[in-house]
Amino acid sequence: MALLIHTILIAGSNNAPLAAARLVLPMIALTMGAGAQLVGILAALFSAAPIFFNVAVGRWADRSGTFGPILFSALLIVGASALFLLAPSVPVLLVVACMIGGGAMFSHVVAIRAVSECGAPSDRMRNLGVLVVFYSLFQFIGPIAAGSALEYYGTHAALWTIGGFGVVSVGMIALRLHNFTRTPKGGAEPPAPGRTAELLRLPDLRRWVVVSSLFSAVMTILPFILSLHALATGISAAQAGLLLGAYSIGSLISRASIGIATRLFRAPVILIGALLSGGAIYAALPFIHAFQPLAVLCLVLGLALGIGVPIALSLIYAAAPPDRVNESVGLTMALTNFLQTSVPLALGVLASSLGVGPMAWTLTAAMLAVAVLVWGGRKR
Questions:
Q1: Is 186 left (phi over 0), alpha (psi -120 to 50) or beta?
Q2: Which superkingdom (predicted)?
Q3: CB burial string 322-333: b at 16+ within 10 A, e below
Q4: Of 267, 223, 219, whose CA–CA distance to 108 is shortest?
Q5: Residue 182: CB atoms within 10 Å
Q6: CA pair distance 246, 235, nearest whole angstrom
């Protein structure tokens, strides 16, 4: 259990900077004179590097073990914060977004394997559930810490806070009390993988890749939507951090209940319910302007969506070829990041004139469509 917890703490320390940066970097950019369109580009760039390199990082981990990729991920986060502290400007913020997004997403790809290989295969869903519970905790701490640092101490303090999580991660990696290994499990070299497109020919894997990607996308785009909504409605940076904190608390409660939920309902039924309720909440979000109702809405949204990711990831792990697990997860994250990139880019222009409504309602439509996909394949 200690091995699992140390592994998860490293993954969480690499995850918190992304949640924090998605909230505060758009606010910093706006205060530095950037417009809504440029902020949309900034939000999209969090996902740019993972789109092109997640699969490669997954293959790296499949062939060489997870230690190198996890250390590289943490160092990317530290380097991103140092870069802005040395040269604070809007163009540098764009590079920082790429680096933090890459560090967090690459870490997630390899952490799934490291966590899944702690214990017996029967422990996999439980371990992944614990991982995402800790993600919720770090996603609660990160935005509140960075948002408060930005409001009370300024831009540099916010970047110091984000980089500090990466420094903690590097320190824990150096202690070697984790399950990130220098070779694949068992020490055997896996066979050379084929084309990534071959994975999409597996019907179950294809379905769960789409479902997991959609869940991750609608969850990680939330900070960008909230940052725009907060500025439009006069909510402070610290309060915006608390909104994300409320969402993370809901996610934590939901993910902690995964064992009970999976005993009562089949996985596709849970996923359909989460997608439908999450879509309804996203549709209502643009109409709520006061802090307290928004906090309740974010809490309920976390309850609805939090359970989806660990269930979908467990289904991907079971459906993927054993020697291409990380590649399959990398493919999932590449699709996730494509959605996280295309949605802010496509709707950034609309947000500047119409507000966050088009963004939220597009996500609602996507969740309804994927719910139909899960319903159609529930008996397979």
A1: left
A2: Bacteria
A3: ebbbbbbbbbbb
A4: 219
A5: 10
A6: 15
pLDDT digits (tens, 9 = 90+) for 157-183: 999 999 999 999 999 999 888 888 877
Alpha carbons 208 and 310: distance in angstroms, whole number: 11
Contact between 230 and 237 (Cβ < 8 Å): yes
Q: Nearest-CA neighbor of 6 among 125, 109, 127, 126?
A: 127
Helices assigned H by DSSP within 65-181 = 67-86, 90-116, 124-153, 155-175
CA distance 19 to 22: 5
- Residue 41's nearest CA partner among 342, 362, 360 is 342
H/E stretch holding 270 reads helix 267-284
For residue 322, what are the contacts with CB-CB under 8 A and spacing of at least 6? none
For the stretch 248-280, what's the b/e string if a residue is b when 16 or more beta carbons lie within 10 angstroms of its beta carbon?
Answer: bbbbbbbbbbbeebbeeeebbebbbbbbebbbe
CA angle, 246 as apex, 245 and 251 as ends, to 5°?
A: 95
Provide mean pLDDT across the span 13-31: 90
Lowest mean pLDDT across 16-25, 253-262, 340-349: 340-349
Rounded to two decimals, the pTM is 0.72
Amino acid at 51: I
Cα 175 to Cα 77, 169, 319, distances in angstroms: 19, 10, 33
Query: If DSSP codes are grouped into helix, strand and coil, which group holds residue 189?
Result: coil
The full set of domains in the chain, from first to last, is: 2-376 (1.20.1250.20)
CA distance 46 to 25: 10
Say what the pLDDT of residue 191 is. 47
CA distances from 252 to 238, 306, 308 (A): 21, 7, 12
Question: Could you tell me which residues come within 8 angstroms of residue 347 by beta carbon, excluding any fewer than 6 positions away?
Answer: 40, 358, 359, 362
